[in-house]
Amino acid sequence: MTTLSTRDATLPAAYSQALEALSLGPLWTALHQLLPNERQTQAVAHCWRWRDLRPLLLEAARLVPIAQAERRVLVLENPGLKGKYAITATLYAGLQIILPREAAPSHHHTPAALRLIVEGRGAYTTVDGVKCAMEPGDLIITPPMRWHDHGHEGSEPVVWLDGLDIPLVRALEASWASQMQPARPPATETDSSQDEFTAAGLVPRRSRYEDTGYPQVRWPWAAARRALAAMAAAAPAAVPVVLRYVNPKTGASPLATMGSECRWLRPGEVTPTSRSTASAVYHVIEGRGESRVGDAALAWEAGDTFVAPPWHAVAHTNLAPSAPACLFQFNDEPVLQALGLWHEETL
Ligand code: GTQ
Q1: How far is the centre of ligand 1, averaged over its atoms, from the C-alpha of 162 (Å)?
Q2: pTM for this prediction
């Protein structure tokens, strides 16, 4: 936020100095900055175009060895939050690139991470020894304090969108990471976290896996897309088609700090306009369209990423005459919900 006014020019200078000397500040000079009448955010609406970013990611892969970078990521910095490595006050987003046969070393940390695969096949993330295959559109979560590394057995560069709660965790002064360790071969061949959740509304009476609090860590896009298409076919045209990624045992967000959703926009569809106290990062999985975010009109196509700061009115339009558009989104809604700060308004 802007610098707080701590000086009351009407006070005797000696009094102001006495306050300062004792590490005291007058509330009355800053009260309405601390508690503004209008919701405030420094973050602004912005869209990062895949066609601009892709060449710069490939160049990063040429310029910076993985051993040096450890994580070869271009961070999406909100233009209103320059230098903060934040896309909103609470969320971090970056695009990570890994080349065939590279290995990004293993570490674990207090921030939570999620990954949405953008392009390429053959890479994987290992979460606590479990190998999670990465295919375009897949969502993989890395819960806090889980060891994870990234590898690549394919033949083309792989890029994914990283979403983390780093700015939030840093604000809490709770950010910590282990030393990096060399990546070890995965202990399992492929992730099995979803093999007990193969039909809606059915969960195993007793899981054969250890209860970690994170029963599912990977959501293949093929399954999510199938579900969206089926929902779109069944729902009346005016009903938005949105699915939330959840912990199948609790129905809550799989991560305590970040929620995620995928949305299907029918050809020509314009969604209702709404705003909420949560902030969100959108990624275009397929299609092309335009979103209104506050006063900005953001045109997008597959691979683009855009941000909606808190309390910005958002509406999406699919501009294709005959093809669907699919948007992935992650947000800080679970935090606002947990703190009793979540409000939503349909405009
Ligand atoms: O892949 O572990 O974009 O630790 C930022 C921090 C990715 C990761 C990021 C990380 C990672």
Answers
A1: 7
A2: 0.96
